[in-house]
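Batch job 17 of 40 flagged for manual review because the log was empty.
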Amino acid sequence: MKTLGNVRARLAGTLDALRPPAVAYAHCDIPCGIYDPHEAQIGALTVLRMVQLIQEAKGAGTPEEQKVAQSRISRYTAVKEQHAERVKHEIRVIWGDYFTADMLKQFPQTSELVLKILKQASKARQEVDATAAQDLLSSVQEFAEIFWKTKNVVTKKLPSHQKSGGEIVYPAA
């Protein structure tokens, strides 16, 4: 004997087979209200470090060293691109899901800054340019400062203590 729940499940399965549902992506569908630009800053630091490693690897001498360098450069490039994309994702989520019209009135430079970060992250993916990577990090730090200001939180920049160098914007406790 079929229960009503089984009939509904079979009907839903048949409808899904005829017209598959669209995939939805979001930071949080609740929304959870948990946002933090820290991951974007880590992504930007990683982009900077990968650029540094690529530039170091380019100086290989012997044919064997060049083969090793080519392999490393390929891996560093892949990681650089992944983290540049992560920066874009994190910034888009915070900007799109967290920022309100009132916040954008209070910080009118935010939309332009977001566009700048997205363009800089794309440039960082396309090129091996330490200045571009540093500019990306600086813009993400500026975004982090604005983000925390929307919460009335004072920030401070502290050394990242990463091999790339640089700083990270933290809420001041």
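Reviewer: the log was empty due to a logging misconfiguration, but the result itself is present. The domain at 37-171 is CATH 1.20.120.400 (Four Helix Bundle (Hemerythrin (Met), subunit A)). Unflagging and moving on to job 18.
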